[in-house]
Each structure stands twice: as C-alpha cells, then as structure tokens.
Design goal:
2 strands; Arp2/3 complex 21 kDa subunit ARPC3; 3% strand; mainly alpha; two-stranded antiparallel sheet; single chain
Length: 189
C-alpha cells in the first residue's frame, strides 16, 4: 500500500502530475485570492490577470479548468468583505472569462512580449463585455446601454492595471515560476 506518492494520476489522460506542480498550483491560487481580497477596496485595480497569465504560461493546460473553477468558487464565496454569494448567472461568465484568459495566454506565451501586454490590456475590456449577456438575462435588454456606459470606467481601470502590471512583472514572475518548477530552489529531503 502506498501512503504517499510524489505524483498523482490524472484520470483524463493517465499522465502523472507532479506533487510539486499541484503544490505550486494551490499556493498560486491562495496568493491570487488573498491579493484580490487585499486590493478589493480599489475597484478593478488588481494583479489577478497578471498572475493568471503567469500561471497559464508555465503550467500545463490540463490544470486550467480545475484551477479556474476553484478560483471562481473561492472568489464568489469570499467576495467583498467576506460576504460571498453563489450566483450562477455571475459565476458562468466569470469562469468563461478566466478560461479564455488562460488558454489564450498559453497560445501566445511564446510570442513577442508586446503581444502579451496588448492582450492583457484588451482583456480588461473583454472581461467586462463577457458579463453583458448575464446582465441582459437578469435586468433585460433595455438596461444594456446604461450598463455598458456605467461599466466602461471600470473596464478602462482594469485595462490600465493590466497594462502596467503585465508590462513590469510578467517576465520576471514567469522566469521565477519556471525556475521553481524546474527545481532550482527546491532542496531534496
């Protein structure tokens, strides 16, 4: 009987996921949620997009869905001031938006840095637009234009936040995470 193993079987394709990768994923998820909570008093100024993009650039795609689902659940339950909610009308577009970010980042992660920065900036707008169908379902089509106009300053803020954070921190954090994954900073026990 095996009590502890250094890897876990992935039931989808029977490849092993290293315990180190699972541990880093859990740590990354915790950092994202805590940072988001700490920065929640400043609307749409965040490091979540940056950290999600770094994660997508360095981790395998088969972890994206569990990672995003865990993040969305934690984010919705912790919410602003730890009130939390479970609202599928919000959780579905949120999940879709983060999955688009992760898969698109993985696809462009080996391109020129400027494309990564431009995509991060554009995502500030895309994230807000993805919620439009949910808003229309909840409040009706007549509120679409007021919603769009009211959300635009928040989209601009998120785009600028993404532009600045990804421009400055994407390369060094990606390098650091790749070094962690390679075992550069890990000691054998």
């Amino acid at each position: 009987m095996v009590l502890f193993t250094s890897s876990v079987m992935n039931p989808i394709n029977s490849e092993r996921i290293k315990l180190q990768t699972i541990t880093l994923t859990a740590m990354f998820l915790a950092v994202i949620v805590v940072l988001e909570m700490l920065m929640s008093s400043i609307p749409n100024v965040q490091l979540t997009v940056l950290l999600m993009m770094v994660y997508a650039s360095t981790f395998p795609k088969r972890l994206f869905i569990p990672f995003v689902v865990a993040y969305v659940i934690l984010d919705n339950f912790t919410g602003i001031f730890l009130v939390g909610s479970f609202d599928p009308i919000i959780m579905i577009p949120m999940t879709v938006a983060w999955l688009i970010l992760l898969y698109a980042t993985k696809a462009i992660s080996n391109t020129k840095w400027i494309f990564i920065v431009l995509f991060a900036t554009f995502f500030g707008f895309l994230y807000g637009w993805i919620y439009i169908p949910a808003h229309v379902i909840r409040f009706g089509i007549t509120t679409l234009w007021p919603y769009f106009v009211a959300d635009l300053p928040f989209e601009i803020t998120m785009a600028i936040s993404n532009l600045v954070s990804v421009s400055i921190l994407y390369k060094p954090l990606t390098t650091l995470l790749k070094d962690l994954q390679s075992g550069k900073y890990w000691k054998e026990i």
